[in-house]
Amino acid sequence: MQSPLIQIESVSKWYGHNHDGVLALRDVSLDIRAGEFLSIIGPSGCGKSTLLKIIGDLLAPSAGRVRVNGKTPAEARRAREYGIVFQSPTLMEWRTVARNIALPLEIVGIPRAECHARTMALLDLIRLRDFAARYPTELSAGMQMQVAIARALAYQPKILLMDEPFGALDEITRERLGRELLEVWTRTSVTIVFVTHSVPEAVRLSDRVAVMSPRPGHIERIVEIDLPRPRTAATRDLPRYWELLREVRAVLGLNEGQDGVR
Amino acid sequence: MSTLPWRTSRSISTWVRQHIQYLLIPVALGLFLWLWETLIRVQNYPSFILPSPRQVAHSWLEHWQRGIIPYHLSITLFEVLLGFSIALTFAASVGYLLAKLPLLEKIVSPYLVATQAVPLVAIAPLIIIWINTGIVQNALIAALISFFPMLINTIIGIRSIRAEYRALMRSYAATRWQVFSKLEVPAALPIFLGGVRIGVTLSVIGVVVVELMWADRGLGFLINFAQGQLDTPLLFATVATLSAMAITLYLIVILIEKISLRWRKNVQ
Questions:
Q1: Strand partners, A63
Q2: Is the pLDDT assigned to residue A30 strictly greater than 70?
Q3: Which residues of chain B have a CB within 8 Å of the CB of A95?
Q4: A218 touches chain B (CB under 8 A)
Q5: Which pLDDT band, with edges at 50, 70 and 90, does A214 fall under?
Q6: What is the mean pLDDT of chain A?
């Protein structure tokens, strides 16, 4: 088997002074394969966002180490291997949609003509070409998130880190964006690390789901999602889908009592 | 073809409705002048108590033609602009520095808060004793008075940038200059310009106060002079000139705001 793209080796993170601070992550180890769609799921406070930030070099681990293609996260970040999407779209409201997508390209220093061509290609990818000259505030929340995703893909990073990107959206938009994300993922072969607190979303989208438990945050189990691709609306009719849903919910401790799978 | 006039008249009426507050300004001004003129006709006040609008206009024209008002206006305007520019430069640079150095800002912030409550105009006499009066000195007092609100707004503007935006720039491996020019400046601009608006008004106040008390030229001095001569029409004419100057400066700031924050038009 090929060596994993991202290796997380017994990473711990505590906030505050040394060992008397809050322990956010305890001894987390995880290998992420190149090109896979991996979800990290868990209740709030389980450190899933912290783990994502450590991978992306937005936070430093207190112990343990992370390797991305043999590099440290800081080196990978400087090599621009990460695209990041937060829960809020974090668009520059003074820039038009097109110029928001072009921002990372401007920062990398890509020539104007190429920058324009790539921005237009990305707008086509998210089917928002007609909105190129609009400002973010004129767009719906779902469209803003699509722009944020296009922007994260602008300089073709190897890894897309997504921190509950659809958490603030309504169920309908959320499903649609999930489908479109899978389409983008298939076309770009980017590796996606996707933090979520929605079990159906994690099962629907991922190759594997890392289930985390809080206090202190650690990975409880990794569930392989062996559902066929492409995932369509029909995926939900498969008995295996419901089994996997139940399995993930069991690890999260959601199946006790009469609280069944929805 | 037949629908064209209908559409046009409709769009004109919409335009009128949208701009009603500006269209009514000349009407309100005319009404005010007419009431003023009528009051004087009825009450027959002597001109040194309350001159009529005509007398004021006449006095203004006369002093303008003799070059008296232009001379004092140019001095006051120069002092205001100089003081404001000094304040703006220092407020923007010191404010940015304080926003970036939390420890320094923590040490300095109690004093900054205190200056917000202190009427700095009251310190002007002391400064006059120390550095005497003159065009540059008056400008410095204007700078002192307008400095703090602009400083505080610069700090607030930079501080209001959410951490996620900085994380985003970090993930792009943006340089310090790119973070400054592509994130910090545009993001802080709305709040910063709010401070500039206050600053330009305070610069005028600062200059006029000093001129009223100690100067031998400038519109503040001219007001003082007119009062001493009981030349109330000139007093009115000078106040009107001063107001026009202040309003113009304020409108320029608003215009800069409108142009640089065009994208905000869409924020409803």
A1: A12
A2: yes
A3: 263
A4: no
A5: confident
A6: 89
Picking from A57, A78, A93, the nearest residue to B263 by CB comes out as A93
Report CA-CA distances (Å) from B56 to B233, B245, B247.
Answer: 5, 17, 19
Is the dihedral angle over the CA atoms A141, A143, A145, A148 positive or is it negative?
negative
**For position B119, what pLDDT does the model report?**
81
Task: Compute the distance between CA of residue B80 and CA of residue B89 in angstroms, rounded to an integer.
Answer: 14
Residue of A nearest to B165 (CA): A90
pLDDT of amino acid B11: 80
Going by C-alpha positions, the residue among A35, A43, A42, A40 that lies closest to residue A55 is: A40
Q: Please check the confidence at residue A260 and state whether its pLDDT lies above 60.
A: no
In 10 A of CB B167, how many CB atoms?
A: 18
Q: Which of B42-46, B83-87, B104-108, B140-144 is modeled with the greatest confidence?
A: B83-87
Measured from the Cβ of residue B22, the count of other Cβ atoms closer than 10 Å reads 8
**Residue A240 distance to chain B (closest CA, Å):** 38
Closest Cβ opposite residue A58 in set B170, B172, B267: B170
Residue A40 banded pLDDT, cuts 50, 70, 90? very high
Owner of token pair 């695209």: A83
Distance CA B89, CA A105 (A): 32
Stated pTM of the model: 0.85
Radius of gyration of chain B (CA): 24
- HEC-encoded secondary structure of chain A: CCCCCEEEEEEEEEECCHHHCEEEEEEEEEEECCCCEEEEECCCCCCHHHHHHHHCCCCCCCEEEEEECCECHHHHHHCCCEEEECCCCCCCCCCCHHHHHHHHHHHHCCCHHHHHHHHHHHHHHCCCHHHCCCCHHHCCHHHHHHHHHHHHCCCCCCEEEEECCCCCCCHHHHHHHHHHHHHHHHHHCCEEEEEECCHHHHHHHCCEEEEEECCCEEEEEEEECCCCCCCCHHHHHCHHHHHHHHHHHHHCCCCCCCCCCC
Shortest alpha-carbon distance between residue B12 and chain A (Å): 26
Of B168, B178, B183, the CB nearest to A84: B168
Read off the tokens for A99.
Answer: 């110029």
Contact A107 B172 (CB under 8 A): yes
A31 residue type, one letter? D
Residues of B at the A interface, defined by Cβ within 8 angstroms: 162, 164-165, 167-174, 178, 182-183, 186-187, 189, 261, 263, 266-267
In the three-class reduction of DSSP (H, G, I as helix; E, B as strand; rest coil), residue A37 is classed as: strand
User: Tens digits of per-residue pLDDT, A151-195?
Assistant: 999 988 999 999 999 988 898 999 889 999 999 899 888 999 999
B69 near B63, Cβ under 8 Å? yes
Question: What does each C-alpha distance from A194 to A42, A51, B12 come to in angstroms?
Answer: 12, 11, 53
B120 pLDDT higher than 80: no
